[in-house]
Amino acid sequence: MAVEWWKSSVVYQVYPLSFKDSNNDGIGDLQGIIEKLPYLANLGIDVIWLNPIFESPLVDNGYDISDYEKILPQYGTMADFQELLNKAHEFNIKIILDLVVNHTSDLHHWFIESKKDRKNDYADYYIWKDPKPDGSAPNNWGSTFGGPAWEYVESRNQYYLHCFAKEQPDLNWESETVRQEIYQMMRKWFELGIDGFRMDVISLISKDPAYPDASQTLAYTKSYYAGASNGPRVHEFLQEMNHEVLSDFDVMTVGETPNTNSTQAQLYTFPERKELDMVFHFDHMHLDYGKYGKFSDIRFKLSDLKKVLTEWQNKLANGWNSLYWSNHDQPRAVTRFGDDGVYRETSAKMLATLLHMMKGTPFIFQGEEIGMKNVPFTEIEEYQDIETKYFYQEMLAAGESEEYIKQSVYLKSRDNARTPMPWNGESDSGFSKAKPWIDYSPDNQTINVQKALQDENSIFYYYKKLIALRKAYPIIQLGEYQLINEEDSAVYSYLRKYQGETLLVLCSFSPDTVNVEIPKDLVEKNGEKLIGNYPEKIETLSKTMPLRPYEAVVFLLK
Ligand code: NOJ
């Protein structure tokens, strides 16, 4: 049987606000993405995932949608989108969109009607609850961007639920009408020709009807997990969605699933269950969490990373994994997991090797392919993100030192991923002639696309090679994963096995030269080196092999 196309694909995530501004208003747009299609085709990616491009007041950069069937005017028109889709398809690039259906914007006409009174046609489109006898909120849940998860509306004398900002009311999936509205809207996009959806916080769509209070042990901003994640009907809803829409089209789906462990993920992804193709889990994103959740100055431990990634490789062996280091909600990979100083290029290539040789669909976040690092903003005012602003105030109110706050914001703010794409080293980064909606990174002068394309040893060309290898070697797509040297505290080594062949992947996380042990039976095999991140190459395997700082090397053994 032919392998599903999304299993041999590499996805590139475009954050439209910051990719390329074609009309010089300081905001990226669809024509800008069209202009850069040849760049993406050169890299060799198969699929573009676009963050939300729909009409929105942009309280949460488009994750607050006011009309699912209109394009945000700042991004262009429906004709621009159709052109993007057609041109991408001409390059053999597929496009997946962001499906944000746990919530809408409070400016969506459904909500504007819903909040008027308890009897209108949209009255039960959202989650409305009566106040407690003392007038307070129905339970103690907090919301992701701060404050309670319930907002009172006088015209109904009720509270509505919002797991995110109060401008992002949660939809009521218990309503059959709401579900049908969503399926119809999805169908329209598929009929237009899109190739799939990334589904925003899809593990939150079914709520525990008891709406239980959360225990104090959960962080306040995530306390809604107590009754709003992996709820009783989530799998029923997704099976229904699959049956009613997805199964009619040859598309890919990736669900973003907060608060979901690898056992729960099996339920979302095992093919016989007919729900989703893969999910984004958060376990490796949580390895450096501290008392304020993500906003900490803690560094991950390699032993934890091995444990988590291995667990997901194994548990989803019969499903499928998504593979990612970063996205628009996360800091830059090379700063977080590599070394963004002297070894920036070497460690960025090492991280790419580790991820791209695994089993699953790799996702590259824009700028990762040129090794962009966290943005060294010096003033808090330069940050634009709603989450960063909230946690800044929270840490300030808790009496944390200015230094701690700055450092944890520098290390974890979502804005690290959101500064404009540096197309060249000029003062406007080749992004826009107008002032950009968020400041450029001062690093753009040295880290930019033009420079990367001129250097045959750049991170860009290394990614290009990794992508090409995945296409050329079925073992990279399908081989079984096996961790080796589990106790090694500096090197992440693993095997992939397929039809009698073995792929050996060695990735050093050390800034020093370290020795790695190679199992005897592998040393004796006939090995061909597929890729490595040092110009002076290692060509053969030995029992004890020295690896240079952040060295990565991959052998195919027959
Ligand atoms: C996850 C998205 O990736 C994030 O950017 C957004 O703020 C929340 N979901 C709410 O939609």
TrEMBL record:
Keywords: Hydrolase. The keyword Hydrolase applies. Belongs to the glycosyl hydrolase 13 family. NCBIfam families: PRK10933.1 (NF008183). This is Alpha-glucosidase. InterPro entries: GH13_cat_dom, Malt_amylase-like_C. Residues 13-418 form the Glycosyl hydrolase family 13 catalytic domain. CDD domains: AmyAc_SI_OligoGlu_DGase.
